[in-house]
Each structure stands twice: as structure tokens, then as C-alpha cells.
């Protein structure tokens, strides 16, 4: 894989309910009837991880409307956690109306889909809890104690939930069925550990260190820290933020708010290849449903940069009318809309993925953050606001 990644980069011009660990049923839907592409290369995946069916596009099974049976059972809703008002507001995407407000207390950061897509978790890193939501009803359940869950991910085999304990500089592993703690991995040299993504084989994860200007590379199998990699410029105020694997696994894109753009890390997670300027306050990274475009939210200038997901080449930039603070969110199941929280503007933005036009601005509470659009296509979830493959 490292050799393949290097070749692709060169060609680009240097560029719980958590469920069981068994692979869920194959997605069905209009897009699922087309033939599965032949693998571009063999991928020795993490045991228990659903196999990579197309090494040229690890997101091939998360295309438009390719919903698993669990996702099909969900009520289409958008979940908006708030860091300031301590609530989750639920929006009906058909009417754009707020249909539920749930005061949960604390500082709610992200709404995270479980590996098996049967539960959504609102994470709260100030009172050490996650609150499960049933996506069939859209209602919250009983509080689950979890250490400092600023963000949360699931190992690609579904065997562990990972609390990204930002304030404690560590990763805490939990059994996603019982929420018993399995172990932890200290990351003392990764201040502000917060976002992550995984290599195509699921064996390695890269976590960003917002307040240290670097990333931490983690061996998922052995739960060990392999190395830290400094960015060419170590921004420590609002440095490395969200991270996204290119569809072919050739590189990782790393948003850096202070740098106003992306760092490009090689697919083997050994060194930074180059930099891509996008806009003031680059923060969130999301893929189009066909995985050909990468959307970059520029939080401090009220814009979204659209890049080629394979090469990182700039395609266009969409600007919100009157500005705003587009932060985190996701693309709708059919790929037609990009939903984003307005972190500093008590708003949610709904953009057309055709031309970037603003479809609707929805008033919400104070400090909307890791917005989750549900359901999402795919066979399983890696967490965050809906990284599915």
C-alpha cells in the first residue's frame, strides 16, 4: 500500500449500542445494483473489518442512497449538538423545522454514529458522558459515563469505541456493547488531540493535535503510538483540525485553521507532502457522495472550498451570503445537500452541492458544533459526524 500511495502522490504532482463485530449486511438501494468495481489492489485489512471492494475508492460502498438495513430504519433527521447551550436540537430535513430540543447539559461537541449505525451518541467532554439517541425515533436514552469524550471514533472492526480525550491527552478504548473500559493510550505530545481518520486497511489511524501543530500516528492493532509528525509550520492556537483520507488512500488531507488551508500527508503517514491554501480558518472536511470532491469549510471567512478529492486541485469556492462560520456537518444521503453548523452564528446552513447556493439558514441555539446528518450510506461508521465506508 505504501508503494501504491507513493506512486499516486507522484502522479498527482507531489500531491452501544455499538453492535457486533461481524460485518453488517451489504447496502441496498438504487446505487447498490450497479456492478462492484474490481479491486485496484489487494488490501490486507484489519481482521473483522468489512473488506475494501475498490482500492481506488475506499468510499465506494457509501455512495448515494446505498443504505444498510439499519440506516434504512432510521428517521431522516439532522442532530445539532451545542457547546454553549448544552442541548441537542433535532431538525426535520424535509421541512427545515426544529422538531425536538433536548437539554442534556455540559458542553456537547459531536453527534457520532456507532459502528453498526444503530445508535447515535452525543459527546460531552465537560461532564464525561455520552448520550445515546435512537435514530428510529430520534429520542435520547440514558447517559453513559465516558472519560472526556471530545470526539469519538470506532475501530474499523467494530471491536472498540475510542474516546478522544482532548483535555487529558489520551485515547480511551471502550467495549461498544457494555461500555466497559478496555484500555487507554497516552498521547502526551499531542496537545489538543481531536480528529482522526484511518488507512484503507484499518490498521493505522492518524489523529490531529490542534494545539501542538502535529499529528499522532497510532497502531490500531497493538494500541501503540507509532510516531508524531510535525507540520512544516507548527500552529498551536487553532492548528491541525479535521482530517480526511483521499479515496484511493494516497494521502491524508489535514485542515489547519491557523494556516488557512490544508497540509497533505502521505498515505503511509510518514511525512507532509505539500500545502493547499483554501481560506481563512480551514476546519471541516467532507466528501461528495461519489467521493470525487472534497468540501473544506473555511470557518473564519464564511466559505467552502471545493477541491478534487484525488489531487487536491481547486475547483471552486462557495461563499455564504452575508458571511457566517461554517464548521462541521455532512452531506445528505442522496448527495444533494451539504449541512453545516454555524459555530459562532447560532445557525445551521444547508447548501446545494450542485452550485453551493444557500438553500436554507436555520436558527438554532448557542454554539452549534458537530452536526450529524442521518441516515448516511455505507456498511459501517468510523465515527465523528459520520465517516462511513
TrEMBL record:
Q: Where are the transmembrane segments?
A: none
Annotated signal sequence range: 1-21
Describe the location of the YNCE-like beta-propeller domain by residue ranges.
63-372
- Residue span of region Disordered: 18-47
Which residue windows does the record flag with biased composition (Low complexity)? 29-47
Q: Does the keyword Translocase apply?
A: no
The record's listing under InterPro entries reads: Host-pathogen_enzymatic-act (IPR051200), N2O_reductase_N (IPR011045), WD40/YVTN_repeat-like_dom_sf (IPR015943), YNCE-like_beta-prop (IPR048433)
Keywords noted in UniProt: Signal
Q: Which PANTHER family match?
A: DIHYDRO-HEME D1 DEHYDROGENASE, PROTEIN NIRF
Q: Tell me what this protein is called.
A: YncE family protein
Starting at the broadest rank, the lineage of the source organism is:
Bacteria, Bacillati, Actinomycetota, Actinomycetes, Pseudonocardiales
